Amino acid sequence: MNDQAATLRVIRGGANESGAKLAAASNRRAIAVSGGKGGVGKSTVALNLAIGYAQEKSRTLMVDTDLGMADLNLLLGVAPDKSLLDALNGTPLDEILVDAHGIRLLPALNGSYLLSTIGPAAQQRLLDMVGSLGERFDTLIVDVAAGIGQVQTTFAGAVTDTVVVVNPEPLSMADAYACLKVLSTEQGVRHAYMVPNRVTSRAQALEVTTRLSALVDRFLDLDLTVLPAIPSDPCVAEAAQIGVPLLVHAPESPAARAIKGVIRALASSSVRTDRWFRSPARVEGVSR
Hints:
Blueprint: H1 3-7, H2 19-26, E1 29-34, H3 42-55, E2 60-64, H4 72-76, H5 84-88, E3 98-100, E4 103-106, H6 113-116, H7 120-132, E5 139-143, H8 150-158, E6 161-166, H9 170-187, E7 191-199, H10 202-219, E8 223-226, E9 230-231, H11 234-242, H12 246-249, H13 254-269
Parallel strand pairs: 1-5, 1-6, 2-4, 2-5, 6-7, 7-8, 7-9
Antiparallel strand pairs: 3-4
Helix pairs in contact: 3-13, 8-9, 9-10
């Protein structure tokens, strides 16, 4: 296990903090949404979690870390002029943040080979940039790219809470397990949440959670909490097609109601922290 696993930990507020700062910290949360496999609905879940928190009056920041194949801007119906690539080149974050449907988005860039291949030093700079926004927001949602490479696991492992989205398909379950395995063995993650997505019945959701939980319990040093399942719902595709988040387009649809249920479940069990990351965050190969 590399040194990052040992250094990516939650640092609680110190005893000398003021009561006001402690109160603010108790309302702050940071959630990374991952899944291993592409096409499982990870970005849709991440986006609508962010929208749901914003609708509950939480100051919400969303970061697209699918660095070279970004699509959150399409799901939000916005066309950002600048991206994280500009941030790495020195553009102030306030010139990059995009307002949409009550959240603020820090966008990546679609089709950027340069951004998709950034090294550890640039990854650390991005973590530091997002961390610098911590005092301005209550909730951070990070949409993590598909795969289990170093970039993906760095962002998923650094954030306080990790949510893994899984479909009933065997490939999705295999890749979700692979994602959890890498987060556990390489990033020192000891707890994660699982969201079954696009299920057609309660029985199917139970089968997904039972099978994946059994694998995790048997082979990984990681606790897995199952969150409410999200049903297959045509409103999800409709919302994506018109570039409007599901919770705005069809707030009473079955999938939207389920996502609100996920938020309620997270509210009772997710970690509240005074920092976005398991700080001091350090990317492998980069010394502080």
